[in-house]
Amino acid sequence: MTTAQGTTAHPSDDLSRSVIVVGAGPTGLLLAGDLAEAGVPVTLVEKRPHGISNLSRALVVHARTMEQLDARGLADELAETGRRLRSFRLFGGLSLELGSLPTRFPYILVVPQYEVERLLERRAVGAGVRFAYGTEVTGLVQDADGVTVEVATPGGGESLRAAYVVGTDGAHSAVRELVGLPFPGRSAIRSLVLADVRLAEETGSALAVDAGPEGFALVAPFGDGYHRVTGWRRGDDRPDSDPVSLDEVREVVRSALGTDFGMHDPRWMSRFHSDERQVPAYRVGRVLLAGDAAHVHSPAGGQGMNTGLQDAANLGWKLAAVLNGHAGEPLLDTYHAERHPVGRMVLLVSGTMLRGALAHGPVSRALRTVMLATAGRVAPAWRRGAAMVTGIGIRYRRPRGAHRTVGARVPDVPLAGGRRLYEALRGGRFVLLAPAGLAVGSAADGRGGRLVVERWSAPRGTAVLVRPDGYVAWAAETATVERVREALDTHVG
Ligand SMILES: Cc1cc2nc3c(=O)[nH]c(=O)nc-3n(C[C@H](O)[C@H](O)[C@H](O)COP(=O)(O)OP(=O)(O)OC[C@H]3O[C@@H](n4cnc5c(N)ncnc54)[C@H](O)[C@@H]3O)c2cc1C
Question: What is the CA(22)–ligand 1 centre distance, in A?
């Protein structure tokens, strides 16, 4: 279909329902897969040629991300490819335990980012996402009906059109710049060295991390014989383009951990810098931003990819509901309202962790040790911290007058018939958790593709409507069919 300003991303697309996602990193892959599974025509535009991998940056997948992957049938397969760490050692010999986190995934999974992308790409292809590799977005104009995107391809320039565009094109987002959004913030750390190496000696702890006056280092096992080494040395301020040698990595690690574990055979080495920045608006009309395009921060706490994947999980079902005519456009504003504060919190947490690791001088380092030791002894403080870093403690704001659980993450509760909630969420549907004895049949009628009704052993006869991303949309104790119908009309459409 040709319009005044360009062609839809695919000839068979209905312009009023189509989406262009820009950037096939983890955020774009998850989002595009969710949209396509919901029947939305989606084109994923990526400037890299097909087969050229994104960089292997992230190494940690947290519990809430595993839950989101579980809701897409991917978590168990990913867990098989990585190494599960239920506890790890922090600065000053403090050990952090994750084994008692209230989730099916009480660990951090150490796995290269490309493994996460491989699974998400396979799912997106299966769901019908059209990939346009070797295609770089260079221009963008929006009007009342849609967005026209200019792209450069090996065959020359083209213009594509869709109802919405989502920029998941990373820290240097062209989409962000083209809609004129600033990216305020500051530099966090420079000359961070990364390497994937083999070790001749055991590290003694699954994940070795420590910081001395001269810098810090972290050594984590991928489970395939290689370890990811990340390190930084005070006063070593070099540009990213400066080549990294194995000797340099050895020295950085020795100065923080006292040994280099006999590292050898690097398969990849790189130098990075990172900033702390966040865009002030996640939505400008028909253009939305997610992942590193919306927020960047230091790698401390392993939050970047995890936060981007949670952005995508929050946005996907909302955009699909609007495009499929089941919700009005204001639902899209809740994406910014819910995810911007989370991005801000992540910047704060990772910044605090980074500054803790960089603490210089005996007084600040002693303070860091005391603070960590205190937090480690105060169970509620530690549990809260672990819940935020792993994502399972994140909740969205509850509207005034709503049930106290609205906006909270729903744990993977068992359902009648032996299934689990996160299995029932597969397919991007709402799940109504109904107590036995509440005949909701007529209220649920006609919403088949968007809603599944499940029975659970409900505390106080509570009915809960779970959003496709696993948060409470609505809940009522001693619910009636009329109240359920009203809730379904409001939230499921
Ligand atoms: C050293 C380091 C360690 C890290 N460790 C962790 C960790 O343990 N856990 C964690 O969660 N995160 C970690 N991160 C962060 C994580 O790597 C990023 O947050 C994540 O890659 C962001 O995903 P994304 O999909 O938003 O963007 P990206 O992965 O950057 O993907 C953006 C995509 O857009 C494409 N693109 C860019 N511009 C255009 C354009 N104009 N047109 C078309 N395509 C375009 C790019 O080619 C790219 O494929 C780490 C980062 C670093 C640097």
Answer: 12
Residue 250, classified by CB atoms within 10 Å of its CB into exposed (0-12), middle (13-18) or buried (19+), is: buried
Split at pLDDT 50, 70, 90, the class of 368 is low
Ligand 1 pocket test: which of 31, 43, 113 has the largest number of ligand atoms within 8 Å of its C-beta?
113
CA distance 203 to 257: 10
Ligand 1 center to 487 CA (angstroms)? 38
Q: How far apart are CA 47 and CA 325, in angstroms?
A: 31
Q: Which atom of ligand 1 is nearest to the CA of 60?
A: 8
pLDDT in tens, 229-265: 999 988 888 888 999 999 999 999 998 888 999 999 9
Q: How many CB atoms lie within 10 A of CB 160?
A: 24
Residue keyed to tokens 């991928």: 222
Distance CA 462, CA 460 (A): 5
| Pairing between β-strand 130-132 and β-strand 42-45 as defined by DSSP bridges | parallel
Question: First vs last Cα of the chain: how many Å apart?
Answer: 29
What's this model's pTM, rounded to 2 decimal places?
Answer: 0.92
Please report the pLDDT score of residue 305 as a whole number. 96
Q: How far apart are CA 287 and CA 164, in angstroms?
A: 6
CB atoms within 10 A of CB 418: 7
CA distances from 75 to 261, 290, 311, 430 (A): 32, 22, 18, 20
Task: For residues 347-358, give the mean pLDDT.
Answer: 82
Q: Which of 6-15, 61-70, 169-178, 311-320 has the lowest mean pLDDT?
A: 6-15
**How far apart, in Å, are the Cα atoms of 264 and each of 93, 137, 200?**
26, 40, 8
Domains of the chain: 15-59+112-183+279-357 (3.50.50.60), 185-274 (3.30.70.2450), 421-491 (3.40.30.120)
Place of tokens 């009915």: 463
Q: What is the pLDDT of residues 153-179, one digit of tens each?
A: 999 999 999 999 999 999 999 999 999
Helices 330-357 and 379-390: crossing angle in degrees, nearest 10, is: 120
pLDDT tens digits, residue range 69-110?
999 999 999 999 998 988 766 555 566 678 888 999 999 999
Nearest CA, atom 1, ligand 1: 57
Q: Give me ligand 1 centre to Cα 23, in Å.
A: 9
Amino acid at 392: I
Alpha helix (H) residue ranges in 48-112:
63-70, 75-81
Please write the tens of the pLDDT for every residue from 17-27: 999 999 999 99
Answer whether 97's CB lies under 8 Å from 137's CB.
no
Instruction: List the residue whose alpha carbon is closest to atom 19 of ligand 1.
Output: 304
Entry field: residues in the chain: 493
271 Cα: distance to centroid of ligand 1 (angstroms): 15
- Distance (angstroms) between ligand 1 centre and the Cα of 311 equals 13
